[in-house]
Amino acid sequence: MKLLLVEDEALLRHHLSTRFGEVGHVVDAVASAEEGLLQAQHFNHDIAIIDLGLPGMGGLDLIRQLRNMGQTFPILILTARGNWQDKVEGLTSGADDYVVKPFQFEELEARLNALVRRSSGFVQAQIRTGRLVLDLNRRQASVAEQPVPLTAFEYRILEYLMRHHQQVVAKERLIEQLYPDDDERDLNVIEVLVGRLRRKLEAAGESQLIETVRGQGYLFTGHCQ
Ligand code: CA
C-alpha cells in the first residue's frame, strides 16, 4: 500500500516510515499539512495518517481540505491522550478512525489494515476469487490452498490489482506501490513483474486473471470478494 504520513515530530515520523517500510508499504512522509496537501494532489495514496497537532495549518483543516477536494481515501488521525474534543472534531471533519499517542506500532498497523480493507469493500482479512486466495495479514497468495511463491513486489502488485478488480489500473499507479520517489520509476519494471506474476499464477493453475489493456494498464478480471 501507499501511505501518506503527516507528522511533525521527526523521530516518530522516521520511526513510522521505517516500520511501515519493513512491513512492505511505501510511505510518503511529510512534516506539515501544506506538504501533505501537495502530496495528496500529486500521488494516489491508499490511506493517510494525519497528526492533528501540526505547526501552521492544523491536521483538522488538512482533513477538511482533503475531503473538500473530493479525496476519498481513509484517514486515520493521531491525537494526544485525553483530548476527546479532538477525536470528535477529527471524525466530524472526515477522518475514519483515530489512534491515541503514545501507541504501539502494531495497534496503528492493525487499524490501518482494517480501514483499508473496509474502504475497498472487503470485510475479511482475505481477498478471494475462485481458488485464488490472498491472505492480507500473512501477505501470501495461494491457489487451492497451495502457497504461490511470490516476491514482495509481486505480492504488492497482485494485492493492488485484486483490491481494484474490474478496474483498469495504470502502470504508473502500480509503480507508486513499489517505490516512494520518481527517480527509481521505470515502467518496464512493472511489465517484467506482471509477466512473472502471470507465469507463477499460471503454474499454480490460474491463468488469464490479469489482462493487458493496451495503452492503459492492467485489468484483474476475477470477481474478488
Ligand atoms: Ca504534533
Q: What does the largest sheet look like?
A: 5 strands, parallel
At the fold tier of CATH, the topology name of the largest domain is Rossmann fold
Q: Write out the strand line-up for the largest beta sheet, numbering strands in chain order.
A: 2-1-3-4-5
Provide the β-strand percentage band. 15-25%
Oligomeric status of the shown chains? single chain
The CATH superfamily of the largest domain turns out to be Response regulator
Number of helices: 8
Large-scale geometry: globular
Structural class: alpha/beta
Order of helices and strands: EHEHEHEHEHEEEEHEHHEE
Beta-strand segment tally: 12
N-to-C CA distance? 19 Å
Helix % is 40-55%
Walk me through this protein's architecture.
By secondary structure, the chain is α/β, with parallel strands linked by helices. It folds into 2 domains: 2-119, Response regulator (Rossmann fold, 3-Layer(aba) Sandwich), CATH 3.40.50.2300; 126-220, Arc Repressor Mutant, subunit A, CATH 1.10.10. It has 8 helices and 12 strands. It has helices at residues 10-22, 33-42, 59-68, 84-93, 105-119, 152-163, 171-176, 187-203; strands at residues 2-6, 26-30, 47-51, 75-80, 97-101, 126-129, 132-135, 140-143, 146-148, 168-169, 210-213, 217-220. The strands form 3 sheets. It has a 5-stranded parallel beta sheet with strand order 2-1-3-4-5, sandwiched between helices. The longest helix has 17 residues, at 187-203. It is globular, with a radius of gyration of 18 Å. The two termini are 19 Å apart. 32% of the residues are buried. The mean pLDDT is 92. The structure holds calcium ion. Calcium ion (CA) is lined by residues 8-9, 51, 53-54.
